[in-house]
Amino acid sequence: MTIGVLALQGSVVEHLKLIQSVNKKINAVPVRTADEINAVDGLIIPGGESTTLRILIDGAKLFNVIKSRIDAGMPVWGTCAGLILLASRIEGERPYLSAIDVDVKRNAYGRQIDSFVTEGDFGGMYIGMVFIRAPKITRVGERVQVLSALDNDPVAVRQNNVLATAFHPEMMPRDNRVHKYFVGMVEETGAKIY
């Protein structure tokens, strides 16, 4: 099994370390090219700044390969800015990948200075959640499963092969349970850990 982390911006190393901690036999790799994206079984789009990520993805000519791989069923997980890129609607701007039926509002949890850490339930597991200029999910489509909520607002959602979190699980370096959940999604496609 090979899981790629889009290595254009954001917490790439943290995601790689946590995927590797799930099972040392998983090939966790940074990806920057279409060939590298085509070689992975699952893809993580990390946090960062969503407008900048759009520009970098477009500049590297990666939009079509990412979109076609997601549409073909490759598991993808977007954290924070990654959630924004995957959303079907973004308040005040055009959607990008439109891979999960949710509406989001950018920076809805406040500015950088308003960042916070809390705890909450994620699919039956009590985990730490780091919010940094996080988007808020304002609408969830009927086929979208809410895995976690904070004050009744969804913060982790899944639709088929797409996982999205408003928070940053990779910022909890001793807790790989959300990463393990994503590995399980990749395993559901038939990818094996050898």
In a nutshell, what does this entry contain?
The chain is α/β, with parallel strands linked by helices and 194 residues long. It has helices at 12-22, 34-38, 50-59, 63-71, 81-86, 177-188; strands spanning 2-6, 27-31, 42-45, 76-79, 87-90, 100-105, 116-122, 125-131, 136-140, 145-150, 153-159, 162-165.
The largest beta-sheet arranges its strands as 2-1-3-4-12-11-10
Q: Shape from CA axes?
A: globular
What is the total tally of β strands? 12
Assembly annotation: single chain
Using only C-alpha atoms, the radius of gyration works out to 15 Å
What percent strand? 25-35%
Q: Unreliable stretches, pLDDT < 50, 5 or more residues? A: none
Coarse structural class: alpha/beta
Mean pLDDT: 94
Number of helices: 6
Which labels suit this protein?
194 residues, alpha/beta, seven-stranded mixed sheet, 6 helices, 27% helix, globular
Q: Would you mind describing this structure in some detail?
A:
The protein is an alpha/beta fold and 194 residues long. 27% of the residues lie in helices and 33% in strands. The protein is built from six helices and twelve strands. The chain has helices at residues 12-22, 34-38, 50-59, 63-71, 81-86, 177-188, and strands at 2-6, 27-31, 42-45, 76-79, 87-90, 100-105, 116-122, 125-131, 136-140, 145-150, 153-159, 162-165. A seven-stranded mixed sheet has the order 2-1-3-4-12-11-10. Strands 5-6-9 form a three-stranded mixed sheet. The longest helix is centred in the last third of the chain and has 12 residues, at 177-188. The chain is globular and about 40 Å long. The mean pLDDT is 94.
